[in-house]
Write a structure and sequence with these properties.
Blueprint: H1 3-20, H2 26-48, H3 51-73, H4 82-107, H5 112-139
Helix pairs in contact: 2-3, 2-4, 2-5, 4-5
């Protein structure tokens, strides 16, 4: 490959990157949506302090999560570093969520001082990942 051909290939790659990278913005909506869904679920479970609350919360969660999964699988492009970012977000969210539910169900049933901060905490990891993706996609413009 000659020098001119190499420069042309680099220009084409740069143009493709500038076109495709913004298409990964969808993950910002997914990450923030997942975080908000988790927050609402924990608030429903924690504040209701009943089996009916758990059923309502899980029904809401199943519907919202299904919508997010369908949305994510219909997107044509994954954001840069998708696997690593997604695994980090879910990997940090899982212990926060499990701690909130297990400890809250045993020690803090119906206590707003436990459930509200834990609900907010559960929304942070995936929301942060969503914002990282949004920032990266905007830097491509």
């Amino acid at each position: 490959m000659r020098r001119e051909e190499a420069w042309d290939a680099l220009e084409q790659a740069g143009a493709m990157d500038a076109k495709v990278r913004p298409m990964g913005r969808w993950y910002a909506l997914y990450g923030i949506g997942f975080g908000l869904t988790s927050m609402i679920l924990l608030l429903i479970i924690g504040i209701s302090d009943s089996v009916a609350g758990v059923v309502v919360g899980m029904t809401f969660y199943a519907i919202a999560l299904s919508a997010l999964v369908v949305y994510s699988t219909t997107r044509p492009v994954k954001p840069l570093g998708y696997n690593r970012l997604h695994l980090w977000g879910i990997g940090v969210w899982t212990p926060a969520y499990v701690t909130a539910v297990v400890v809250g169900s045993i020690l803090f049933r119906g206590e707003l001082l436990w459930w509200v901060p834990m609900a907010v905490l559960s929304a942070v990891p995936t929301s942060v990942v969503g914002l990282i993706v949004l920032r990266r996609s905007r830097s491509a413009q």
